[in-house]
Amino acid sequence: MSGKGKEMRAERTLLMTWLLMVVTTLVIRMSGDIFIPSISHMATDMGISEAQATSNLTYYYLWLMCSYILFGRLCDCVSKKKMLLFSAFFCLAGCMLCALAPNLLVLNIGRSLQALATGAVLLTSQVWIGSFSDKDNMLGRLAWFSLITTLSPVLAPSIGGFITDTLSWRYDFWLIALLCVLIIPAVGLSKIVGDTQESHIGHIGSHIRQTLTGYWQVLSHSPIEHFSLTAQGLFLAQGTFSAINSFLFVQEFGVSATVLGMLIIPVVGGLVIGRFPTLWLRKHYGVRLTFIVNTAIVLLSAAALIAYYFITGSHNAVEVISALTIQAMGFSGLAILSLNNSMLVAGNNKGVVSGFYNFMNQGAALMGILVAQVLFSTGMHATDILQCSAYLLIATTLLGAWLFLRMYPIYQETLD
Fold first, then answer.
1. 0.90 cut: is pTM over it?
2. How far apart are CA 3 and CA 363, in angstroms?
């Protein structure tokens, strides 16, 4: 085969690997998002309270957080194909349990399996991209990859809401299970470009201890938390909104699950749009100004929610979606910027650092869900919880901004 033919074959194989990573990540991530508009319907179907219904999100985010302890180091020493197959099989099992669940306990077990699958596939994809990138192109590649996988919060709630209104919430999970059945043979028959040469992992207990030790070293001896606290505050707010949005829009604003799924589209549009000014600002003005602009957008959107409620005494669907769409632009920029900064200072430990970064983000999201559950149990309405979330977001964003600006000069050469 000629040199040109080999080059074309290599490019084609690389393209197929990209497509496989994107499609697998997109489908498995949808398993977490597709059910969100349907939670209130599930609560009615099973005859349970709001706090009980949102426990599926608690289990989902708890196990998603734990998955970054289990799989962070594995992504540095286990082949990407095995990690993708593991993710697809676990997602399939979780979706079947949820679809057939006779009670909340079985549903929560299925959601936990979906979370483990999501964590594994996200880490696998991020580490694979990081292994091909340097500081000049890493932000762009992470941005484009996350831009594609951001389709999950658009497609999943829209599809899930329509399925719930026309059939049943259980069919949300049957759809994802079918897609996993199609993905598994595709992954098994494919060649993954740049796949990891497997190394010794050791006993699972030893693996977890080493992972936790690595996370502690990252937390205590690296600047990653200084660069990512603002993103964690946004994930906390996202967790709270995930727990309340079905009750807020369906029960308090009176919209259907289908309409709720469609209302999420502008918010995800904000996530998509926010990546482009971030890439442009990072290229022309550096990391610090990019961070400041995105932080200002987040603060203004949270302040707008608080001011509207203070003036009118209530919220409405249009106002909430408008504020969250603007907030999503800043969220998008801060999320990819903090991941980029973390990967750049990671050196050769991208799997551990990526695992820690995602572990902290999902831990923050879990805290947001728990906050919503506690407030629901006190009798608070979803609109009041949304207001509390806005105040908390402003506080965490300001603290994160102070930490970032304090640490940035020390690592400016590495980041810029």
1. no
2. 49
pLDDT digits (tens, 9 = 90+) for 322-374: 999 999 899 888 888 887 777 777 665 666 676 677 778 878 888 888 888 88
Per-residue tokens: 160: 């899930």
Angstrom CA distances, 272 to 96, 296, 400, stand at 31, 18, 23
Calpha distance 156→81 (Å, rounded): 25
CB-based burial, 393-408: b 16+ in 10 Å, e otherwise: bbebbeebbebbeebb
The DSSP 8-state label assigned to residue 102 in this structure reads: S
Distance CA 275, CA 141 (A): 11
Averaged over 60-73, what is the pLDDT?
78
d(CA 61, CA 239) in angstroms, rounded, equals 9
**How many H-runs (helices) and E-runs (strands) does the chain carry?**
16, 0
Phi/psi for 171 (5° steps) reads -70, -15
| 11, burial (CB in 10 Å: exposed 0-12, middle 13-18, buried 19+) | exposed
- Name every residue whose Cβ is closer than 8 Å to that of residue 57 and which is 6 or more positions away in sequence: 39, 111, 239, 242, 243, 369
Give residue-wise pLDDT tens across range 173-212: 999 999 999 989 888 877 766 565 555 555 555 656 666 6
Which token pair is 132? 């091909």
What is the 8-class DSSP label of residue 36? G
Q: E strands within 193-259? A: none
**CA dihedral defined by 330, 336, 341, 343, rounded to 10 degrees?**
160
How confident is residue 47, by pLDDT bands cut at 50, 70 and 90? confident
Q: How confident is the model at residue 218 (pLDDT cuts 50, 70, 90)?
A: low
Tell me the average pLDDT of the chain: 80
Q: What is the DSSP string of 174-209?
A: HHHHHHHHHHHHHHHTPPPTT---------HHHHHH
Average pLDDT for 377-402: 90
The C-alpha atoms of residue 277 and residue 11 are separated, in whole angstroms, by 29
